[in-house]
Amino acid sequence: MRVASFWPVSAVLFVGVTAATFFVNEYYVVAGYMVLQGLIMATAWNILGGFTGYVNFGSAGFFALGAYTSVVLYTAIDPPLWVVIPAAAIVCGLLGLGAGYLTLRLRGVYFAIATLALAIVLETLMVNWDYVGGATGAFIITPDVPLFASYNAFLFVIMLALAIGSVGLARYLNHSRIGRGLTAIRDDEVAAECAGVPTLRLKLISTTIMGAMMGIAGSLYPYFVTFVEPLSAFNLIVAVNAIAMPMIGGTSSWIGPVIGALLLGSVQEWTKVNISSELNLLIVGVLLVGFVALAPRGILGLAQDFRARLRGPQKKEQGDDEPAAA
Amino acid sequence: MFSIDLLSNALVAGLLLGGFYAAVALGLSIVFGQLDIVNIAHPAFVILGSYVVYMTNSALGWDPVLAGVLFTPLFFALGVVVYRIYYSGFERTGRESLAGLAFFFGIMFILEVTIILIYGVDYRLVDAAYIGQTLRFGIIDLPYRMLVPFLTAMAMTAGIALYLSRTFTGRAILAVSQDRLALELMGANPIRIKSLAFGIGLATAAIAGALLIIIGPVEPSFGRVYIGRVFAIVILGGMGSIKGTLLAALLIGVSESMVQTFVGPSWADAVAFSVLLLTLVLRPQGLFGRL
Predict the structure, then answer these.
(1) Among A281, A305, A280, which residue's Cα sits nearest to residue A295?
(2) Contact state of A236 with B109 under an 8 Å Cβ cutoff
(3) What is the ipTM of this complex?
(4) Min CA distance, B128 vs chain A (Å)?
(5) pLDDT in tens, chain B (291 residues)
(6) pTM attached to this predicted model
(7) How many other C-beta atoms lie within 10 A of the C-beta of residue B102?
(8) Chain B residues within an 8 Å CB radius of A53
(9) SS in 3 state form for chain B?
(10) A9, A122, B22, B59: least buried by Cβ within 10 Å?
(11) How far apart are CA B66 and CA B279, in angstroms?
(12) Subunit contact A292:B106, Cβ cutoff 8 A
């Protein structure tokens, strides 16, 4: 997309989709919310995973911490959403910063393993914390919103704005000085460090942004489902989707997770209704493994190859920007 | 609440539990520690082991430990296949860091969902004459459902340690992690050695799965909590050192048992993660390690 056309296109999209919430069946609003939630999670994951090359397996932990920040605030003072969302972003951003600070100086796999275990520890904490409902869960009562078709439609519109903002940020990072630094880290961390790229600081910036963005995605979840308990908030499918969507779309650019999330998210909403929700999970797993093994650059890569072939038998472009071995 | 009785029983229970943890971590110690393959699906394969043992136990009445041992060739073959896919798809092309991790994450998820599709999310358990009986030495209780896994795990650990240090192929496995080129110069094929080692790693998962389901009922997502635990053990033990893995497993078993007895059972899961983080921050090379 041209540099100038992203925001106008997004604005038109935002107005159009918001208007549509008044006319379509409530089901599409709910399904659309889930797709947007996946979109934000995938975009957040890709800032660290795709741009920097560090794998976060604990996305469900960040997501759930965002949700539980909302539950805590709701139980304490029930503030408006414009307080809840930044609060969740700050809490989860700090978690990302802390986890990154402790493990990002080591090899990348240690960060991956630490995030995986982190999600489990956070779940243990929430199960044991009675204030947020412990293992039984907590209810949230949502108020009426006069201007919208329903409360879900209201949340959907907020989520749409947040999703556009997240993608815009990812797009900015992708093209900015920071993004070039992150790419350098992904391709060869030692060389980047030698060339004067402040690798640790850049990695910490991207884990913090990733954490905050996942917290934002989670912060509205309690209001959306009105009942939160640890098992559903820490559901593994959140973490799997956050990885599968960028991997399927293509990790090298900001648009990859968007393509992956829209496709995989819609497929999931469709199979959940038309086939079964267990089989739906299996499809996601198989697609993830299939894409990483057979189409490592995702749909973006396939499209590039296809375009190269259309242009004729000229020399194929070197478009392989997969990360090198750590 | 605090008494010598309680303390000594918690200590013994911890040692028995730790011995079993060694069995779960052993395969990963070879695969992650020696081959440097981050197989986060290892606990999921252990759960698969539990379910095949459950299947033969409930349908044919086989003894769980025997069933676990009988399934090792199948798991070995599965391991060889998984490694071949991993090698041709990721290791050979140098993409193991991001895509390889995602590959194993996907496998873990597929295994879990497949088991849910076949058996549902209910807890499953096995029958054997000794489960439910307890050996008593004075104030110390030794329940057989812990003792049998402990002894089996010790035998397996000793067997693997002997195999790695005494046989030619065992030494070749140690060699492939240290200096691949030198191994090739000695006339051994590193890919063959690595598939062999990966196969052995998964074969231990069949037995570990049998032990897991002897200790208590198992459900499909049970493996997740073991991910932090087994990686904590392997890293604390110093990446691939069998002696270190055993010691770290016992250490974590005892700490968990103490926390369970004196703090509360629901906090035990958090112990391994704290150990993992502390190890990564303070001593990333582990107890007996090379970095």
Answers:
(1) A305
(2) yes
(3) 0.83
(4) 32
(5) 568 888 888 899 999 999 999 999 999 999 998 888 889 899 999 999 999 999 999 988 889 999 999 999 999 999 999 999 998 888 887 776 788 888 998 999 999 999 998 988 889 888 887 887 888 887 788 888 889 999 999 999 999 999 998 988 888 888 887 777 777 777 778 888 899 999 999 999 999 999 999 998 998 888 888 888 999 899 888 877 888 999 999 999 999 999 988 888 778 878 888 888 888 888 777 777 654
(6) 0.87
(7) 27
(8) 97-98
(9) CCCHHHHHHHHHHHHHHHHHHHHHHHHHHHHHHHCCCCCCCHHHHHHHHHHHHHHHHHHHCCCHHHHHHHHHHHHHHHHHHHHHHHHHHHHCCCCHHHHHHHHHHHHHHHHHHHHHHHHCCCCECCCCCCCCCEEEECCEEEEHHHHHHHHHHHHHHHHHHHHHHHCHHHHHHHHHHHCHHHHHHCCCCHHHHHHHHHHHHHHHHHHHHHHHHHHCCECHHHHHHHHHHHHHHHHHCCCCCHHHHHHHHHHHHHHHHHHHHHCCHHHHHHHHHHHHHHHHHHCCCCCCCCC
(10) B59
(11) 36
(12) yes
Do B71 and B205 meet the contact criterion of CB atoms below 8 Å apart? no
What is the chain B residue with the closest CA to A48? Answer: B98
Identity of residue B124: R
